[in-house]
Structure to design on (223 residues):
């Protein structure tokens, strides 16, 4: 099994709803988002972790954690992701996948084989603005297919949007709410400055909470 691991967080109380989890960051991503916080993980490089080291790391925390978040980078670009998730589940750990929703074949496999217990998918922007955020052309039909697969999977899920006032207007956020639709969890994550994208963000938690306050019937959270 070969999967490039760029880093780990030993314990997180916030990345896997309802669980104490380690976070494993895969190396490499097929997007180049303007505000990426994990930009050191974007290029595909050799992994600094061997599988044995990772196993020792997880076993040492097994009494504390009950889940693992597989994040990135973009985990679904790694062809061995299904065997990696199966390996984690064999250790008795619940698996949450963080994805940008660009590999429907991989997602379908993970869902059909029940190799993940929770899926969090990014909705970067309304469809017409996607390429501006991700800094490349990518067929949004593929992202729509992933969204639909996750919605129909009956696996616990949430959709997430990183919000920056210089990139997404409130009208854009309305469109994203419509894309996700009622009955599904949507999280607006306020974008903090990064060394690569240090533009002032006028969205505050209060402003966004006020904005969502009249969206009855939708499950929207601001983080
Ligand atoms: S999808 Fe995530 S990891 Fe990839 S460039 Fe965008 S923010 Fe960074």
């Amino acid at each position: 099994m070969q999967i490039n691991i760029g880093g780990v967080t030993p314990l997180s109380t916030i990345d896997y709803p309802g669980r104490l989890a380690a976070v494993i960051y895969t190396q490499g991503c097929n997007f180049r988002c303007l505000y990426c916080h994990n930009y050191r993980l974007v290029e595909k490089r050799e992994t600094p972790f061997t599988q044995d080291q990772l196993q020792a790391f997880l076993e040492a925390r097994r009494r504390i954690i009950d889940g693992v978040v597989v994040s990135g980078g973009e985990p679904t670009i790694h062809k061995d992701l299904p065997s990696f998730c199966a390996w984690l589940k064999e250790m008795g750990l619940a698996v949450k996948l963080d994805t940008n929703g660009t590999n429907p074949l991989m997602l379908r496999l993970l869902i059909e084989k029940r190799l993940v217990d929770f899926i969090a998918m990014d909705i970067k922007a309304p469809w017409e603005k996607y390429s501006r955020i991700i800094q490349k052309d990518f067929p949004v039909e593929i992202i729509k297919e992933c969204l639909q697969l996750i919605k129909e999977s009956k696996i616990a899920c949430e959709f997430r949007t990183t919000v920056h006032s210089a990139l997404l207007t409130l009208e854009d956020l309305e469109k994203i709410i419509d894309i996700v639709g009622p009955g599904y969890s949507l999280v607006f994550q306020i974008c903090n400055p990064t060394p690569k994208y240090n533009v002032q963000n006028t969205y505050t938690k209060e402003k966004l909470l006020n904005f969502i306050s009249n969206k009855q019937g939708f499950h929207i959270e601001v983080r």
User: Anything to note?
Assistant: The helical segments are 51-61, 81-90, 104-112, 130-134, 140-152, 170-180, 205-212. The mean pLDDT is 94. The radius of gyration is 17 Å.
